[in-house]
Amino acid sequence: MQEVTLVEVGLRDGLQNEATPLSTAMKRELAERLIAAGVKEMEVTSFVHPRWIPQLADAVDFACSLPERSDVCYRALVPNRKGLERALATPIDEYAVFLSASESHNRKNINKGIAETYPVLEEVVKEALHQGKRVRGYVSTVFGCPYEGDVSVGQTVEICERLLKMGVYEISLGDTIGVATPIQVKEKLKTLTRHVPPERLAGHFHDTRGTALVNAYVALEEGITTLDSAFGGMGGCPYAPGAAGNAATEDMVYMLEGMGIDTGIDLDALCEASLLAEKALGKPLPSKVLQSFSAT
Ligand code: HMG
Ligand code: MG
């Protein structure tokens, strides 16, 4: 059976969109619980401007407080040189650079046009690789933009090629506002994988309209074996109006294990971590599997 890598993005994508900021100590407790549940690939924070994302303003302190684990890969977003300097002062293992397939979202999110973003990312990737870090790339709004609507697949192909040339090892394709539908995902991936091998791609589906899991399934059918998800189903980009949570890790694990794919994640322990997050955030989280766990 196919192997799948799940990248847990809840502590980053999840918390960046929450009204209630969590303390560094609570984030650490959640990280410990995720590790205890078997999570091995964990995006924990972003070295972005604290004014832009106040929920992750403690990025350096939090990253430095994480348990030392040689079997866990800690990841974080790095937008520019200043972010890289902050990241390099921490033990984060792997970085991710990011931009959008649509000009308007790129401007709203990182305050630059796409063309102006390339040299910034080039510098970050070059220096990060020089420092011995692996670098992932994200492309947002691949399946639709909150400001421009449809986004051409050609634009995504062009950005992916630029990112690969810079030296990123993988590109995560973001359905930032959760508008994608399965046939659209299939068609876009068929075009994309003519230019970028599926082993170099990952799926990052938000669940705004309830299609994240089925889109993830279609991505698997198209040969993608790395999927992003957030515990409890938290998530969303504050600079993409209407964006809701990521595919929930609980729901993803349930689906994958049901397909005979071993995720290495203990579902009950994961649900316990999400229950703690619900308590800390003071609200229920959307994962369906979590809801059924809570009801039993
Ligand atoms: P800017 O204001 O254009 O930055 O922000 P600047 O380069 O003009 O610098 C202005 C000041 O900010 C300077 O300080 C810099 O030092 C400082 P001054 O000299 O005036 O005192 N500065 C920083 N400070 C701390 N950390 C930094 C940093 N950079 C500059 N890294 C910037 C540009 C990119 C920083 C800003 O727009 C930003 O932080 N944006 C981040 C937005 C964000 O995090 N969005 C969510 C993540 S993306 C996402 O969720 C999508 C994804 O999940 C996939 C999907 O779902 O599609 C990945
Ligand atoms: Mg996202």
UniProtKB/TrEMBL annotation:
Task: Quote the InterPro entries the UniProt record gives.
Answer: AIPM/Hcit_synth_CS, Aldolase_TIM, HMGL, PYR_CT
Pfam families for the chain: HMGL-like
Span of domain Pyruvate carboxyltransferase: 4-271
Provide one Gene Ontology biological process annotation. Answer: L-leucine catabolic process
Q: Does the keyword Cell inner membrane apply?
A: no
Spell out the molecular function terms from Gene Ontology.
Answer: acyltransferase activity, acyl groups converted into alkyl on transfer; hydroxymethylglutaryl-CoA lyase activity; metal ion binding
Alphabetized, the UniProt keywords read: Lyase, Metal-binding, Transferase
Gene3D superfamilies named among the record's database cross-references? Aldolase class I (3.20.20.70)
Q: Which family does it belong to?
A: Belongs to the HMG-CoA lyase family. Belongs to the alpha-IPM synthase/homocitrate synthase family.
Identify this protein by name.
Hydroxymethylglutaryl-CoA lyase
Which species expresses this protein natively?
Melghirimyces thermohalophilus
